[in-house]
Amino acid sequence: MTDAELRAEVSRRERIAFEQAAEEIRAAVRDDPALAELARQLVIQQVPEGLRIQLLDTERQPMFPSGGSTPNDRARALLQRVAQIAARLPNGLEIAGHTDATPFRGGGERSNWELSAERANAVRRILVEGGIAEHRLHSVTGKADREPLLPDQPTAAANRRVAITLLRSAAAP
């Protein structure tokens, strides 16, 4: 087998593993009455970097309290389920916290930068508690409002989210 064929085979197997993991996460949400309400807040897609799992806020159902970095019980349960599924894969992970463009009103020196980083780090802790080995974590970052999901609606609730990316082998540093 040539190097190119080997890379293609690794890529194919990884794509299949990501598809299976995505379906397992969707099924876990669908089949658990406590998590089923979050189905519309979960976006899972394959991107060039790997498998991206995003948990979005809605106006009626935020994942975190306003200005806070401790996820609510449902978000925590969903993240624990994601950790259990992701722990079975060998891929590295990146975690990013995002805010909307509404200025942070928490007072002091805190801003959306701190808030998004604190939320990403809270997700990191839950994933590690759920079985993800620390050495698999490649980055935990706060993006503030710099990468909105809905650029035409910078203050939309969906821009407040956390993104967990299972990295493709080729994307890992």
TrEMBL record:
Keywords: Membrane. InterPro entries: Bact_OuterMem_StrucFunc, OmpA-like, OmpA-like_sf. SUPFAM superfamilies: OmpA-like. GO terms for cellular component: membrane. Residues 51-170 form the OmpA-like domain. It comes from the Bacteria. The keyword Membrane applies. This is OmpA family protein. It comes from Siccirubricoccus deserti.
